[in-house]
Amino acid sequence: MVVCFLLTVAYQYLYRLIYITMVIFMRRFNLLALLTLSVLNSYGQANLILTSGKVIPYMKMEAQPGYLNVWESFSREKIEIAIDSVVGYYKFGEEADILRIKVPDNSGDTDIDYQFLPYGAPGKIKTYSYRVDYQKGPDGKPLEYFYIGKDDRLAMLFPYSFGSSKAKSMDTLKTYVADQPEIVQAITADSYTLENVRRLINQYNLLSFTPRASADDPQGVVTFYRMKKGELRGPLTMTIDDKAYTFTPYQTINVNVSTLNPVKLCVGEEGNMLCELIQGIPYFRTYFKVGLSKDRQPSIERINKTRAFEDIKILKQFQ
Questions:
Q1: N- to C-terminal Cα distance for the chain?
Q2: How would you class 75 by CB atoms within 10 Å of its CB: exposed for 0-12, middle for 13-18, buried for 19 or more?
Q3: 219-316, CATH topology level
């Protein structure tokens, strides 16, 4: 029993040493190594990200009005974290380590006025969504919950069968995009699907976009990559605000992107560009697969980390 105890203590100190070393490495070079993920996954179940950039591995978290009770992975002691200092959290191995961002909760159901939702797209209107596999929609597919946020407002648009209706959901969206009449006119009952709503919100955000990102802003790493299957052989052009990149198949490009202000990403070729807004996340790498198909259709797809790692492993075999 003494041997087991000593081995446990030694493991905890070794884990702590490895973690501290990797955090220093990450902060210095802005990289997220696979080794870090595998080590953290074996002991700390989740990471809390603070606005200061500090990352706290924790085993349990409990929401309270104005703060979080957090049980640290190393000490197992409970600490209080002011909610205003929190960016979000992610759990290792759960849904490909998706980052959940702190957002308002104005439902009034409890005295807690915040919640955490999976990060979606940035812009004047921000989006958040998650899928529940064991709940099925009318089409038999897993149910997806889709939220939009603007200023201090937050609304769930889909599904609209829980105490709501399609008409109410459409009216809510119209209030959010009221300052862009052409978007309001495009909201119709016949075309009111989640896919089309995402497209309309992207159009709204592009119409409302004013470049504000600066090199002095805090930066987050965004990795772009391009596969080869189904792709046009030649290069495509990728622009981020006023900077252009040439992208060939089986290529990866890492770019530091502002975590405070969105930037405009465009992919394609001259006269045929697909655009959307993106934004870096503090201490959390994001991945996008870009492409230009053989029939010259540009594409931008945000990819979860697990799938991105698998794709990039394939890419490295041909680089």
A1: 51
A2: exposed
A3: Immunoglobulin-like (2.60.40)
